[in-house]
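Treating backbone geometry as a discrete language has practical consequences that deserve illustration. The amino acid sequence and the backbone structure tokens for this protein are reproduced below.
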Amino acid sequence: MIPGGVRVLNAGLPLIVEGVPADDVVQLDWRPPAFGDAEVARLAVGLDDSATREANERAIAAVHAVRPRLVRVRPARDVVPGLGAGRILLHAAPPIAVADMCGPMIGALLGAILSEGWAAGPEEAEALLRSGGIVTEPGHHHGMVGPMAGVVAPSMPVLVVEDGGREAYATLNEGLGRVLRFGAYDEEVLTRLAWMRDVLGPVLDAAIVAGGPIDVTSLVAQALAMGDEGHNRNVAATSLLTRRLAPHLAALPRGIEVLEFLAGNDHFALNLSMAAAKLAMDAAAGTPGSTLVTAMARNGVEFGLRVAGTGDRWFTAPVGPAEGLFFPGFGVEDANPDLGDSAITETLGIGGFAMAAAPAITRFVGGTPDDALATTRRMRRITMAAHPAYSLPPLNFAGSPSGIDVLKVLQTGVLPVINTGIAHREAGVGQIGAGVVDAPSAVFLLAARGLAEARGAR
């Protein structure tokens, strides 16, 4: 007998205990395995064995061993595989046909075509795009990531991170307002893109070469201790990066101009976090038998998932808009379904998974600081290990939950949470809010089937 009377542990719907005083009820967070799909639940049980556990140990160890360094900023055509010749544009994954693309994606592609000089105006650019005169492919297929539309053109400068001879790449962050990644392509956007190509990229590259490679893991770890989470809040990381580059930028022609740009762009370091996370997760890609998620990405129509044990294969399902806070004058009816490669940060274990480190982020995406702590604790249930480099002070310096396990998602019913910006559904309007979105359960059901098929084929 519990002092004070009998308490009720309820594993069913709350309405079952409506007649019991609320203080006397403990509601158990129990859900049917595999989201109620009996076939997938059976497959998941078959996959959950010593061979899978050993594969996952190898996969997450490979991820955590990566120590990305920022080494250059170069034109994409010079460093990104497959982008050196022809009219090729990259976009946020998963793969999608031009005819099926959302408004912001189309707008960003038109802007890239115009910035490359492949068309004289928007109408000519759209005709070229829709006629097949431009090849479009996911950036993930080229070791490349970019936020929101994620569009990359050959002349655009990209961050180059490397470790052990492997490289990954990300676009340079344009800042807020009317920007290409949200589908804007007016004269203001094109002028900024030209400045980034001709000034920002070369000057940053010269400063990095002068100062030597930058340890991105150390930079992100420091930023987490200073209130960032590595996705929607990047104030500390951008400040740390700027401080590292400042002495070398100050000595360069137009370096002060670049410093002023960095000082006005709190999100600049987001893309660096993304490139580092991409490099880390790709270290586990193709690990036979592993149920580790190696990529999550959204193209504004579908959500895509990649798993270590199934290599380059995408598992996709429709994606909806994020829930969060909208700027004045906008609402969910204006929102485009979620898009961008930036969920690679959550795939590694920062971003939404590290919200406990950034209670201030809740003022931007909605919720309370207690919600941020609860979110990080909840993500522990579906991940393989704490990240050894990314400790979270509000949780007694425990490592951030890292390495999403398909089987744990199916067992618990807990879905990965992603911090995200919210784009207007029409090209060019831009960001209209910020919030959080859960990965759709359907992609994990598909991934389990794919993993079972891969095991049967071996």
Notes: The two ends are 55 Å apart (CA to CA). The chain is about 35% helix and 20% strand. The longest helix spans residues 187-211. The CA atoms of residues 229 and 351 lie 5 Å apart.
